[in-house]
Amino acid sequence: MTISRSSGCTSAPQRKPSWLKRPIAFQGKQHHVQKQITDSGLHTVCREARCPNRSECFARGTATFLVMGTVCTRGCTFCSVDKGSPGTLDTTEIDRIVSAAENMELTYVVITSVTRDDLPDGGAAFFAALVGAFRSALPQVSVELLIPDLRGNAQALSTVFDSRPSVLNHNVETVPSLYSVIRPQADYHRSLDVLRRSAAAGLVTKSGLMVGLGENPDEICSVLDDLNACGCSIVTIGQYLQPTPQQTPVREYVSLDQFSAYAKYGESTGITRVLSGPFVRSSYNAAEVVRSLPR
Fold first, then answer.
1. pLDDT tens per residue, range 173-204
2. pLDDT tens, 249-271?
3. pTM reported for the whole predicted model
4. Burial of residue 269 (number of CB atoms within 10 Å: 0-12, 13-18, 19+)
5. 237: helix, coil or strand?
6. CA gap 143, 287 in Å, rounded
7. For the purposes of burial, counting CB atoms within 10 Å of the CB of 25, is it exposed (0-12), middle (13-18) or buried (19 or more)?
């Protein structure tokens, strides 16, 4: 296994490499998915965060729902979701998501949210109510939650964990040395604690991070060691792509060999599944990955 020990690139690369040029996805179920989302007045992180996989996922009949509004209380510099003061929670969103999932004939649903530091519980009760609604109306549907850190609030985290989602995902996003620039209102060790508590609660625990932000391979390997120690079963590693000129620039386009080396290293630590590649994202092929886990 080869892990390049470069110190990371400090200036933005000039052009995207060939492996970042994607074919246009076939139409498939795109129109049906887009219509369901629009008609239901729902939001997806696919659109709000300008995910490069959105056409492919829509074509396959899947989407990642974004709940509790589209305005985030934090100012992460990699993310294109609007920042500011969110509005009040819309509890009808829960029934609308369940209904949309039924109409889309989904068997696996990924739900995430903006960070809601304005709420006492960070939105924990809302997440738990969503899982409960699916258990009641569509018990055959598996629910993966991708949650913020809830400011490390133990009671709020327990509320989410006690709802027993099929998978609990919380992304560390980047290496600790870049948090002050990339995630200035987050804390690496707090994120690790969320993951540790999730695994201790007996949940399938998942995390993810981006590369190409100026980190070096030693730092990525150290994060993978930490994620294994926290009990993560699944880790995703993908290339950071600047969504708009307002976000932090790409510092490096990571090679395919390097992505492969990260996957091999991560699984060598004991993590069950490490998905590592340019277009890998937290919810990309989420159902297939979970179904491939040993029982």
1. 999 999 999 999 999 999 999 999 999 999 99
2. 999 999 999 999 999 999 999 99
3. 0.88
4. middle
5. strand
6. 10
7. middle
Question: From CA 287, how far away is CA 216, in angstroms rounded?
Answer: 30
CATH number for region 24-289: 3.20.20.70
pLDDT exceeds cutoff 80 at 12: no
CA distance 82 to 114: 9
- In this prediction, residues 103-125 reach a mean pLDDT of 93
Q: What is the pLDDT of residue 142?
A: 93
Cβ-proximal residues to 170 (8 Å cutoff; 6+ apart), any chain: 146, 147, 148, 149, 191, 194, 195, 198, 206, 207
As given in the structure block, the two tokens for residue 230 are: 């926290």
Query: What angle is formed at CA 15 by the lines to CA 285 and CA 252, rounded to 5 degrees?
Result: 65
Residue 175: the pLDDT is: 98
Average pLDDT over residues 214-232: 98
Round to whole Å and give the CA distance between 262 and 45. Answer: 26
**Cβ density class 110-134: b for 16+ within 10 Å, e for less:** bbbbbbbbebebbbbbbbbebbebb
Q: What are phi and psi of 27, to 5 degrees?
A: -65, -50
Question: H/E element holding 227?
Answer: helix 217-230
| Residue count of the chain | 295
